[in-house]
Give the backbone structure.
Amino acid sequence: MTPALPIGAMRSPGHPASSGFSLLELAVSLTLIGACLLALLDRVLFYQELAEKARMEYTATTLKLALQLRVGTLMAEGRRIDYPALARENPVAWLERPMAGYAGEVTADQPARLAGGSWYFDRPRAELVYVVDLDRHFSSGGEAGGRVRWHVQLVRPFGQPATDMTAVGARFVSVAPYRWF
C-alpha cells in the first residue's frame, strides 16, 4: 500500500513534491496583475475626465438656458433689453444658486491658485472661466493652463458693423475653440 499524498500534491518520478510558486512564477503573476491594474487605472482616469467634460458642458448648457430665461423675463416684464449690459453681467447671477466649484469673481492674481474643476468670473473680461482638472485629452486654441472661457456674445443685425452696439440678441458661447476628446 502506497502512502496517501496531500490533496493538490503530485509526485513525479525523480522530482520531489512542490509546495508553492517558484520565484519566476511569482514574478510573472505579479507582472500580469500589475499590467491589469495599470490598464484599469487608465480606464478609470479616462472615464473621470469624460465625466468632468460632461459636467462642464452641462453647466454651460444650463447657463445658455439661464440667459434665454433672463431675456424672456425682461421681455415679459415689458422692459427694454440692454444687450451690451447683459453681456457684462456675471452669468452665475442668473442661476438660483451657484454651480458646484464656483469661486466667485476673482482678481488677476487669483486664477493661478484655483484648483482644477473650479469656475470663476473674470470681471475685467466679462468671462466665465472653467479650470480644467483632468486634461490628458484637452487642448485649447491659445489658452494656456487648461481653461475654457465663456462669454455672452452679442447678436447683431446682418450687415451691421462690429463697432455698432445695436444688438438684437445674445448667445452664451465659448471664447476660443477647445477640443476635449
The mean pLDDT is 89.
